[in-house]
Every structure is written in C-alpha cells, then in structure tokens.
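Quick one: structure for this chain?
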Amino acid sequence: MAMKCLAISDLFITKEMMKQGLAKLEQSGIDVTVREWKHESLELLQKDNLAIEQGGSEVVKIPEELLEQIESFDMIITQFAPINERVIKAATNLKVIGVLRGGTENVNEELAKQRNIEVINTPGRNARSVAEFTVGLILAEMRNIARSHAALKQGKWRKDFPNSEFVPELEDRTIGIIGYGNIGQLVAQFMRGFDTRIIFHDPYFNGQTDFENVELDQLLRESDIITLHGRLTDETKHMIKSKQLRAMKQTAIIVNTARSGLIKEDDLIKALQEGEIAGAAIDTFDHEPLDQNSPFFSLDNVTITSHMAGSTQDAFRNTPKKLAERILGMSLV
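Got it. Here's what it folds into:
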C-alpha cells in the first residue's frame, strides 16, 4: 500500500505551490493530499505564527477539517500549522513530520520523539531572503534611506538626521554577527563585499570560516553594526538587554531580522530614546502587528518593517521541493 502524506498549505505556501513542490513525492508513489490552513488575511496568519514561535505548538488550535482521517497518513508536511499533542495522538500511523521552515517551533517534538516519529525541517530555506533583507536594513538605517523617503512623501526635503554628525561608509567598519548559521554566513559573505571587517559570536559553530569567532562582550564592544541571526531558546532569550546595549558603541546600530525575543524590547526602546546607541533596524516584534501607540512609532533613530525579511516567492516556492528531496533520501521511502 502506498504511503500517504498530508501537506498543509497556507497563504504563503499556497495549495498550488505545495502540489508543484511535492510532485516528486507523488512521482515516487507517495499519495499526497493537500489541505489549506485558512486565514482571512496574512496578518491573521502571522499573528498565529508569532503566538506559536513565542509559546510553542500547543497555544494555537488546529481546525477540525484539517484532521479528517488523520489516522491514515504516514507523514504530515506543514509550514506554520501546529502539529501539537492533539494532532500527533490522532495520527496513529504517523512516521514523519516535515516542517517547511528553518525551525520546528510548531511541532511537539517531545511527544513525537516518544512515538518514534522523525521530525525534519528545511534549514536555510529562506536564508538568502533574510540575508539580503538584512543588508537592506543596514543600509537603510545607516544612510537614513527610509527616513528621507518618509519625509519626501510628506513634502519635506529633509537633510538633518539623528546621526548626521557621523553618517559612515561601510569600508573598514566592523560587522558583528550573532549566530553564524546559514543566514549569518550569507550576511558575512555579502558584507565582505563592502570591505568591512567581519567578526561573529556563535559558541556552537565548529566549521571552517575566514572570520573570527569572538566572545559576545568583545563583539558588542568592537562592532559598528550588530546583526542578530540566532534561534530563540531559553538560553538566547533577551540575550541583548540594557547591559549589552550599554556595552555597544554610541555610534553603533543593531539589526534584528531573527526573533523578537533575542532583544529585550523595552530595553532597546529606552536605549534608542536616550541615545545610548545610534539606531536600530527591526523586522520582528513582541506583539504583531505593532499597536498604534507603540513607542517605536515616535522614535526617529529606528527603521521598522512588518516581519517580512523571509517573505519572498522564491523562498516559499522552493521549500517544498527541498523537503521532498530530503524525504526521498530517507530509508522509509
């Protein structure tokens, strides 16, 4: 009997993208069923996704219609939909959970392990998207691109900015990368082209690199630009707070396109308000979408974007293909 796969699409990876990306599974004899985790808007999907990233797989309920005959499936493929205790216990024939993202926050991995269910993901699936966006944020914040754009849209020819006295070029500046996985390494590769000095902090990195792996204190002290690319864990939560922000150069900026919890948000806002650092560029927040009264809106030394660093059609379209290839390389198929 052919193996059966349930693939759960969403507004980012649509049903059509999922079908096309998993075509090789079907060609190999796997019966693929695609169902959609429905949301009225991308904003509502992102809200559920943020809740899962911060609270784990059990905080969001999966709709009943996605679980029809769940006991008949050998594998489940998902991007954002939570594969929690209820799903795993109902899927009595489950052998593999495939996650179309770099992390597995939306899976109850402990229960999966107890039931000998293999959990696989797609590390680096949107690495280029996030790395390219990070470079864009660095330039936007340092060179006041977004602030000038916003002023011109209001009919103002603005030339005076919070960092006007020390607007730098990138040559010979030090870039400090926190987290040296797929994204961090790409950022290093891109920023090297600007003739910068690259250092990074990653206690778990053991590969080959041209750049120096330093202690966090040294990175904070020496960097002109700090960019975060680590996973959010109990160990890394609020790894950047008041003490670390005070250790940075007053002319430095910090960029976060990873997880909001890596920086203690209130401490960052205070540091920006008091001029302890020159600026920040932030794509991910503790509460999304940002409340209209958020202090971020009143700051003139921050570039903010709506959690979009990894959102390119190339990344979403190619991820199911990458996961299908990985599944086909497993002995169970």
